[in-house]
Structures are given as structure tokens and as C-alpha cells.
Specification:
six-stranded mixed β-sheet, binds magnesium ion, binds adenosine-5'-triphosphate, alpha/beta, 10 strands, 8 helices
Amino acid sequence: MMNLSGPAVAVRDLRVSRGGAEVLRGLTFEVPRGQVTGLLGPSGCGKTTLIRSIVGVQIVGSGEVTVLGAPAGSPALRRKIGYSTQSAAIYRDLTVLENLRYFAKVLGAGKGDAERVLEEVGLAGAGDRLGSALSGGQLGRASLAVALLGSPELLLLDEPTVGLDPVLRQDLWRLFQSLAERGVTLVVSSHVMDEAARCHRLIMLREGEILADGAPGELRERAGTVDLEEAFLRLVEERAESVR
Ligand SMILES: Nc1ncnc2c1ncn2[C@@H]1O[C@H](COP(=O)(O)OP(=O)(O)OP(=O)(O)O)[C@@H](O)[C@H]1O
Ligand SMILES: [Mg+2]
């Protein structure tokens, strides 16, 4: 049963250090259910670290991360969360379908789930290919398919559209939208601002801090710009002026 009360994710004053530097500097926000929330910001701003903190695999310095009502990393969350890492994580010496059947078994997903997710990511024609024989974009989609196994309530996708052509990117964004319509919560990281417009809600990160948090239209309006790339740059300037 989906627990529909409360936000999917609640983060309170989260601080994380990596390699001796504080890379998340006191983040507080909530992720509403049944929406696509985009995590945007330049390389190194902390997107992957934040996603890892929500998954519960990151050592956090202080603060609280609550996921579907439980502390991040709780065993009860394992089957409710799908995570696809930034670098593809499938076995190279198994075929795509063998990978999916293996992970389906580990996750206790139903029979036929491997074929279902293969279709959803547009890899139905590549099920018999070895992992080692896939292109970068195919590898990324195979990892995404693993995250979809078992129909989790919350999907954390770290740059799922990197290396894809515009048609495939559009297909995946349609998939994300349709999952959200079915009540799934998605957190999708990207550093491509034109993808941001497809999200219900955006969290713009910069140097481990939240620069802005709101619907794409709100952020454009607040920055007084027509495009989100400009909005990001404008908000960076405003921040710099306010601390001067
Ligand atoms: N294993 C690690 N050890 C030490 N520092 C790390 C490690 N991984 C990341 N960092 C540092 O933490 C900061 C945030 O990194 P993170 O990977 O979260 O950024 P990102 O926004 O996901 O970047 P990208 O868009 O390039 O994937 C960076 O300054 C990075 O150098
Ligand atoms: Mg990253």
C-alpha cells in the first residue's frame, strides 16, 4: 500500500562532507509525492551526494533525511525505492535481459517484470545483447530499467538522460511524466537546463546550497527571464550581490 500522507522526502538541515570539504551545506526541502522534481546545478554542486543521502548510502555529517516516512536507509525502504546511479551499473558479461531477470529475482519483483521494464526504456530490441556490447545511451537505459523493477514508489535517477539523442530524451521524459501520473515520485538530476522545464518542480543547487526551489514558471518569473538557463545565472548574480 502506498502511504499517501506527507511528502515523499523531507530533508532538514542536511550537511555532508566529502574529501575534507563540506559539499552539502545545510539543505532543507521537501519532495512532494506524485511529481517529477528536478535537481539541477553545475558539475560538482552536490547532486549525486544529495541523491546518495536520500538513498541512504552516504555518510551524513548532520541533519535529517526522511523517506516515505522512515529514516533514509531503513531496510523497509529497500523495495520502495528505485535508484539508478550516474555510472551504469549492470553486469557486462550478462545480456540485458539476463541482468534484468537477475535483479528482478534479487528484488522479489514479479515474473514478467524484466520484459516490462525493458519495453518501458525502449530496449526491447536489445534484450539479447551483452552488457559489454551496449552503447553509452543503451547502458544508461539498462540501468534505468533496473531501477524500475518492482514498480517502486520513489525513483531517484542520477542524470538518466546523459548521452541520449533528443528523441530518446523526449521518450524518457514522457515515461517519467506517465509514472508521476500513476502516483510515482521521481527525483531526477540533470545539468541540462532545457530538461528542467519538463519537471513539476525544480531545486537548483549551487556549491552545496539551494539557490532556488519552485515550479519552473515561478523561477523564471522570480528571475525575470524567459529561459531557465538565464534564470539560473540571474539567481546566481542576485545571490552574489546579496552577500556583497
Ligand atoms: N568520493 C569522493 N571523495 C571526495 N570528494 C568527493 C567524492 N565524490 C564527490 N566529491 C566531491 O563532492 C562534491 C559534490 O560532488 P557530487 O558528485 O555530489 O556533484 P554532482 O553535482 O553530482 O556533479 P556532476 O554533475 O559532475 O555529477 C564535489 O566537489 C566533488 O569533488
Ligand atoms: Mg553527479
